[in-house]
Amino acid sequence: MTVRVLVCDDQALIRTGFATIIDSQPDLEVVGECGDGRAAVELAGRLRPDVVVMDVRMPVLDGIGATRLLAGAGVPDPVKVLVVTTFNLDEYVYEALRAGASGFLLKDAPPSQLLQGIRTVASGAALLAPEVTRQLVGRFAARIRPVEEVAETQLAPRELEVLKLIAEGLSNSEIAAALVISQETVKTYVSRILTKLDLRDRVQAVVYAYRRGLVT
């Protein structure tokens, strides 16, 4: 099946570049382009793309607000959003993920990462590169105020341990090594965590952990 993509960025050159890269692939198709978040919401409602590649800073409505309207809590038919950003905008990425984005990429990532990122998000998986998570979410942890300071009684001790490691940016293989368990076991724990906490994906698990003060 062809993955239908909507590209939203206020810089025409970047939009054109992304569209050219995406349309070069036989399994991907750009169905629309726009330059602000409000237009992205309107186009997504009309075109129903599989993935929206979303910039953060844009006029009329920024990428965070647009993401919240497309994929946020309570949206009946959410659209998968892949946020693109630069490190000097990284304080906004946490809010974008919290708003419902399925992942993020850096604008200077090679074309292969953009293409793989779109495919990953379209498949229903979360795109949260561990090495970027450490630099990004960790750097702004002090600004994220926990909503409550209670123990997570829903999770077993080992599940809570895995959740904390996910939030610290560790990949499944790194978690397996740290806890001396197999990667398959880690996958099982991750699945249980998402189910018990009613979370959509790994991205939401990271946000949940920071909001609950499980990681500082």
Automatic annotation (TrEMBL):
GO terms for biological process: phosphorelay signal transduction system; regulation of DNA-templated transcription. Residues 4-122 form the Response regulatory domain. One of its GO terms (molecular function) is DNA binding. It comes from the Bacteria. Residues 148-213 form the HTH luxR-type domain. SMART domains: HTH_LUXR (SM00421), REC (SM00448). The keyword Phosphoprotein applies. Keywords: DNA-binding, Phosphoprotein, Transcription, Transcription regulation. Gene3D superfamilies: 3.40.50.2300. It holds the Pfam family GerE. The keyword Calcium does not apply. Transmembrane segments: none annotated. The modification 4-aspartylphosphate is found at D55. This is Two component transcriptional regulator, LuxR family. It comes from Lentzea albida.
